Amino acid sequence: MHPASINTTRSYNDCVGQWIWERTRPEMVVSMVNCGLHLVIQTSSLPEKNKVEFKLSKDTSSFPGRLLQHDLERNYSSRQGDGRVLSPSPGSKSSCISTTTNVTELCGLEMKTATSSLSAFGDSSIQTPSKSRIRQGCHSAGPNVSGDHVNLVSSSMPSFPILQRSSEEKILYSDRLTLERQKLTVCPIIDGEEHLRLLNFQHNFITRIQNISNLQRLIFLDLYDNQIEEISGLSTLRSLRVLLLGKNRIRKISNLENLKSLDVLDLHGNQITKIENVSHLCDLRVLNLARNLLSHVDNLNGLDSLTELNLRHNQISFVRDVDNLPCLQRLFLSFNNISSFENVSCLADSSSLSDITFDGNPIAQESWYKHTILQNMMQLRQLDMKRVTEEERRMASVVAKKEEEKKRESHKQSLLKEKKRLTINNVARKWDLQQNRVANIPTNQDRKDPDSPSQDPCPVNGSTISAFPEETGPLDSGLISALQGLSVTDTHLVEVDGDTLSLYGSGALESLDRNWSVQTAGMVTTVSFTFIEFDEIVQVLPKLKIKFPNSLHLKFKETNLVTLQQFNALAQLRRIDQLTIDPQGNPVVNFTLWKYYVLFRLSHFSMQKINGTEVTQNDMIMAERLFGILAHVASSELPQYRMISILGDARKKQFQYLLEPKGKKPGIISEENNDSKRLVGENTNRATLNYTTRDFYNEKLEEVKEKKKFCKMYIEDLVKEATEINMKNEALQKLWPQMFIELVRDAVIEIRNKNSYMKLCLQQITDQK
Amino acid sequence: MLSPERLALPDYEYLAQRHVLTYMEDAVCQLLENKEDISQYGIARFFTEYFNSVCQGTHILFREFSFIQATPHNRASFLRAFWRCFRTVGKNGDLLTMKEYHCLLQLLCPDFPLELTQKAARIVLMDDATDCLMSFSDFLFAFQIQFYYSEFLESVAAIYQDLLSGKNPNTVIVPTSSSGQHRQRPALGEASMLEGVEASLFYQCLENLCDRHKYSCPPPALVKEVLSNVQRLTFYGFLVALSKHHGINQALGALPDKGDLMHDPAMDEELERLLVQVPGLVNSVTASSEASCLPSRTPSRVASPWRPLHHSRKVDVESDGSTEETDESET
């Protein structure tokens, strides 16, 4: 067969050298697995264009059964690989029965189509008439030729029997020779049969393929059930189309280089571990490798005509390259070791595949098995020998869509999770840096970092990449690359998960300015702060109170809670049921008294849990015992002007924080006003224990400094003035007695002469008039 | 008003030296800060209350550190307030770290410097690891010395260092002083071998220091008593001895004797009253919140926390400590 004919053979049945190869329907049946072969060969090499039908059977007496067996093997799911053993599966049994009638029908059908041929199949006799029997025990038995028409004669060569047929026989079956069950241990020398096209050595003990190199017109060679260990001696058989080597001892696929026309290659039941040396078989349509020792499938390139591939009963765990087989329609993978669709994902890319089996694999046990397969292989018409119905396909697509959605969702989730993780890493790094910087300013390295912020992300990036393999197994590379782009610059993270609002990094506090939906805001009951200075949190507490009125549980981690008085700041909230202070980054938790102080200071909340531990009555009493006096002193002994000043500060502070985000509605402020009134009554005697952040406190001190300066001057002036007045006063006091005496003396002297004094007085009166 | 010193000084200096100016300034400052609120209830009332609170020692509550340390009276008041507020912690038997004590101090004075607390802890722990736990009374008495006499102790530390290194401290601190001249050098060689300095030499320096020191000093007689018991001593040994000396504690007058440290019946009574409220806490908060609002506080003031222990003695402390021979004026 010359290559040019390939194209035409695809379109016309009667083309030269074309094997018509159809499924059971409609009219031509070719059961073509290992054991029996049902072939219709149209060869133009026969001048009369007669069709030659070969009926090859390993066991002719049981032909109908065998055919049935084939039928099952092919059409139903009794997949026992080599087809020799019927699967006991009940499903196939029932179909087995139903097909028994079919067989005869099929036979009839075949008869009809092949009537004009020379085929003996037309005979009611099932035995192939062309069969020649050679009865030969072994070499020692000598050329003991028995059988109907064949003589096996010792050749000149010592150990090979020579086969000769009677001329009559030759004329009748000129192109076929069957030497089945002849107990042959070697291939006999076949003389004068150069035009043999079909040669059958089934069920012998042949260990080596020999002496057939002269049969160059051989199309069909059946060596089923022998003891061949190596494929050899076939290099001259260039016309060979069908090579059946099932049930031998072959370990390696080899020496097929010249069999370019090979159409069917049956190697089932051997010991082959690897698919190799087949890539040149571009005309091969059927490859049977069932019951071998394959652990995986690949190296399938070049098998451009392969339509059926049988790989049952191997140990295959993954399949590759199947998408490189453009004509593959049937693939049998039953009874292997495939456990996930990912291992056979190339199947999804094959557009021609219409029939596949996976039964007997771990994958077939999975609940998702059927719809996953159907969804991924839309082209499939049969799965595990059952027709795929529209309904099933629809179901599969629905399920798959759901799954897809779920997957996408989880993908999204994991993306988010990853992003979150990275961001948190980044925030943590920043936080550490900040903490260290606070601790040791003078070190050069630390000073360098803030100067070059562009350097900062680099180590972050590096470390996240190195962290990937351990945590992000299922993430594909695309996801990773997507992640790398996004997170490095994020310095904070805000996350609402159910009823928990998590804030990472001080930047996250700005999110409280956002317009949260009423629903979200109402749902949030837990607020968690991580990597944020507590002092910064304090400033947003009033906002938190407004935006998340239902927040009952506060969590602090890495927030630099250092002193007890910082807890005072929490008292301004509306309500706290639970408080969780993570020891990490909050040294205050190491104190013996912190819990009691919290209980004491926030006693108006009647807290239920601190750091996950239930608050008991005893705790409350202890807290009161320890700090009650402080509160008492603070409330009863604090001078009123101080009280006003302290509470006033608290109020002022609240106003200030409220006014900061400009453009607030006045309504909110008045509401806040109510709150601060409430604050005064809030807890009887501990309102004076409040906390001002360091910055604010320093600011205040700065402010006070000015006033102090003024007061100092003012008092200085005042006191100086007062002391001066005092001095003058004292001086006056000293002078006064003398002055008085002088005055009296002057007066006495003046009125000494009574008459002249009277005259003078009268004169003055008249002058006045 | 007509005490002898009153005539010895110009009025202004006298007022300044007696810290009257400090309080006047502060009063005006406070007034300025809350002028709207205060003008509502009367400026005369305010000044009355202010100076009352100064007398009672409650004026330092929650004030800034610069004010708290401004006068000996403020310091004593703060010590007393600290003792009163956190006596219960000591009573409970808790041993706390320096940092935790510092937190407690900060509850009363938000910007209380860590340095002072550290120094006080060093007295207790003899300059060892400052992360150890201390009992309340140990800390309190050490803190008292450190806080009340902090400037004095700084000078003492300088003197001690000078003595250790063999310098004559007086020549360093007061070059004109003649009292240091006759001191003997030979002791130095031995001194560097042994730990600390010789007690008598040390005392002479301290006496000298007390004479000229314008800040509060412990009464020299008591210092002498402390130093007379030993031959040699180290700086921290000296501080520990000071802190444990109950005479000094009495002279200072802010705290009760060590034996009575946990004893404060008035406050205990108050505490019992508070504790009764705890079991029904949820109810009592709402119930009492109105009752204890601002105006109704005053009645409890009747029992002054300061006076019974202390008032008469205060003058002594001041007079023998700082005033007599100081002729520099504080401005």
Automatic annotation (TrEMBL), chain B:
It is found in: Cytoplasm, Cytoskeleton, Microtubule organizing center, Centrosome, Centriolar satellite. The keyword Phosphoprotein applies. It comes from the Eukaryota. GO terms for biological process: cilium disassembly; microtubule polymerization; regulation of protein complex stability. One of its GO terms (molecular function) is protein-macromolecule adaptor activity. Residues 318-331 have a biased composition (Acidic residues). One of its GO terms (cellular component) is microtubule. Residues 293-331 are annotated as: Disordered. Keywords: Cytoplasm, Cytoskeleton, Microtubule, Phosphoprotein. Belongs to the CSTPP1 family. Interacts with PCM1. Interacts with TTLL1, TPGS1, TPGS2 and LRRC49; the interactions link CSTPP1 to the complex TPGC. Binds to alpha-tubulin. Regulator of the tubulin polyglutamylase complex (TPGC) that controls cytoskeletal organization, nuclear shape, and cilium disassembly by balancing microtubule and actin assembly. Regulates the assembly and stability of the TPGC and thereby modulates polyglutamylation of the microtubule, which antagonizes MAP4 binding. This is Centriolar satellite-associated tubulin polyglutamylase complex regulator 1. It comes from Loxodonta africana (African elephant).
